[in-house]
Amino acid sequence: MIEQKLKTALDFLQKKTPFRPDIAITLGSGLGGFAETMEKIAVIDYAEIPGMPVSTAPSHAGKLVFGKLAGVNAAVLQGRVHLYEGYDVRETVMPLRVLRMLGAKILLLTNSAGAINTDFECGDFMLVEDHISLLVPSPLRGKNPDFLGPRFPDMTCVYDKDLRRIADSTAERAGIPLRHGVLVQTSGPNFETPAEVRFLKTMGADAVCMSTVTEATAARHCGYRVLALSCISNMAAGISETPLTQEEVMATAQEKAPLFNRLLRDLAGAMAVFLN
Q: Looking at domain 2-275, what is its CATH homologous superfamily?
């Protein structure tokens, strides 16, 4: 069933546009405006694509945008789908799998995340070095789609070392401080409790969000080179002195969006060296 859904969606996109992406980018909460900075070639609503799950979360437009970004062919997922929206974990990774089948070689994942590491501050950017996936179901459960990747993929280095070096040097040239850390995903939609945050800290997590980890796992399985960036939008429960709200997350992400957008654009251009 997974294979048929993916091939049906792929066939639709191939007929809809001749454009073929080299880089795929998923935009997190409050960061969707980045797609408006592209030289657009085609914009397709998720709802148009057969079998594609549709975004229902606030600020996630649910559009697939094809276009040029710093001279690179890019496909931008303007909004993602989450486990908390009621989707099966395999549905949440369908968009990135289809883009891989369409030709994308690099996946850049972005998200808004809560800081567990007390050295972090709201508005920081974190380069994801590793992740903890134990709290959410694996997107690789069930019959393995062998045409995408192996049954038991290695996860020693999910986040590409060369891409991380490029990210560090790109951020340094732009004068943008970049934290490094471990990301953990929870299912949401509720924020974590203070006790859960203390537990996550003992596990080695620096930041927590409700996405990205399952996507990175599926991306590594199907052969992407993966890079992930978090915008620290709030301090996690028990660290923050005030109750957590979605409005706080959105306000921080939108405030930092111009700087984040600059970093993403510079990164796209810098990663072109890996596409030859």
A: Nucleoside phosphorylase domain (3.40.50.1580)
